[in-house]
Amino acid sequence: MIVPVILSGGVGSRLWPLSREHLPKQLMPLLGGEHSLFQKTLMRLSKIAGTSPPIIVCNESHRFMAAAQIQALNMTYSDIILEPVGRNTCPAITVGALAAVKNDEDPDLLVLPADHLIREDDLFASAVQQGSELTSDGKIITFGIVPDRPETGYGYIRKGQSVPGHSNGNACVVREFSEKPDYEKASSYVDSNEYFWNSGMFMFRASVFLEELERLAPEILSACRQSYQKARRDLDFTRLEEGAFASCPNISLDYAVMEKTPHAVVIPLTVGWSDVGSWLSLHEVCEKDECRNVVAGDVLLEDVRNCYIHSENRLIAALGIENQIIIETKDAVLVSSIERSQDVKLIVGRLKKQMREEAFSHSRTYRPWGSYESIDTGDRFKVKRITVNPGASLSLQMHYHRAEHWIVVKGTARITKGQEESLLNEDQSTYIPWGTQHRLENPGKIPLELIEVQSGSYLGEDDIRRFDDKYGRC
Predict the structure, then answer these.
(1) Residue among 334, 330, 356, 352 at smallest CA distance from 344
(2) What pLDDT is stored for residue 358 in this prediction?
(3) What is the CATH number of domain 2-274?
(4) Which residues contact residue 218 at a Cβ distance below 8 angstroms, ignoring those fewer than 6 apart?
(5) Of the candidates 346, 453, 444, 448, which has an alpha carbon nearest to the alpha carbon of residue 402?
(6) Model pTM?
(7) Residue 14: which of 364, 354, 359, 366 has the closest Cα?
């Protein structure tokens, strides 16, 4: 049996301003179509024989979006484990392994990042099946991508001798791991035919991994085991205990285990892989026009070559430029040379230091019941557009410092205000005084849309007291 462990805790800062901490790249349909990278990863599992429902390890703030995207595929999952803080891949994989063996089972684990692109799913499935022979012999497998160019944005794996005694003749012992190189060194790696890109995908028997972790990094296993044992169920999620998990070193699986274990084996892949980790890599995998431009949205070009231009809200007109990235969202615009796409994370770092909201959230914020978008803000007022999904409802709540006016513009709303309950249709409105318990529900079959006008002395999102919430929020 193969248990997939899907890692979905990243934030994709190099794809800012589209990817942000509260809505990261893996949950967005960056490649066009209706499916996110996370959903494409889940769909890929159907090609692999012998897989059980996956274990998802994700950021606590993404839990409802992840669950909704799984539900949209009509798929099941074994568990969604919530990381209270980010601690890199080794702790995340460790809690996934602990979840997989909790019923005294010892499956193979297939560890996949949620934000990668693989175009040849059938070839990847064949490589996974080949890996099953090696895991039964105690090997810890990493999948290496056969490079087609020098690339400075990836780590590299150097192969050693072929693994003896197995029919899978292209598997090799791992000789060494190398950090992201400069261009000259990357060129020498590619020319040597001894190196693969480090994909961050792994496969191993759960017991073998846990035994090696006990030997090489016992402090990680101890902290993760304590956090998992003290975890609590929260609706359909497993919420790890924060204190123990936060005590884990912030370390990747490569550093903690793969570089030290004698059991590391690399299986080479040529499957149309990309980590979609920067605007340059996204440009490489997207469909281009005759001038090698990738465009999305309302874009007008004249004498433009080799650019990635994305518009969400307004016309972008570009003239006489090449090798540029232009990304427009409602609250931010990025302009960069395409060669500097790896450095977008430097901009995000500066935004975070300044505590700028643009580093964390879009103007549209997603909630388990739907979303809201800020339209206008003043000293004592705020205007939002709220969308409530069919059958969904907000919590029964109260505010101490603000009143709210609701105007329905689409659909039907069920309003609870104090002891009263009523229905509002399009073009009808209601007023919620401060200090009044209230709830907003959508009893209909279509999305409910309304305009909310807040007024008061304090308009922060933390001015809320919940009395009842179907999503278990405090």
Answers:
(1) 334
(2) 94
(3) 3.90.550.10
(4) none
(5) 453
(6) 0.89
(7) 359
Q: What pLDDT is stored for residue 167 in this prediction?
A: 57
At 324, the amino acid letter reads Q
Q: Where are the domains of the chain?
A: 2-274, 289-350, 364-468
Q: Which two tokens stand for residue 402?
A: 């603000």
pLDDT at 350: 97
Looking up tokens 């980010």 gives 86
- Alpha-carbon dihedral 200, 203, 207, 208, rounded to 10 degrees: -80
Instruction: Tell me the per-residue pLDDT of 358-398, one tens digit each, with 9 for 90 and over.
Output: 999 888 888 889 999 989 989 999 999 999 999 999 999 99
pLDDT for position 474:
67
Are 326 and 316 contacting, i.e. CB atoms less than 8 angstroms apart?
yes
Q: Is the N-terminal amide bond of 17 cis, ω within 30° of 0?
A: yes
Residue written as token pair 């996956």: 54
Question: Which one is the CATH code of 364-468: 3.30.200.100, 3.40.50.150, 2.60.120.10, 2.60.40.1930?
Answer: 2.60.120.10
Whole-number pLDDT of residue 194? 95
Residues (pLDDT < 50) of the chain are none
In angstroms, how far apart are the furthest CA atoms of the chain?
76
Q: What is the 3-state secondary structure (H, E, C) of 246-296?
A: HCCCCCCHHHHHHCCCCCEEEEEECCCEECCCCHHHHHHHCCCCCCCCEEE
Cα 199 from chain centroid (whole Å) = 16
Do domains 2-274 and 364-468 share one topology? The answer is no
* Tokens read off for 308: 């990635």
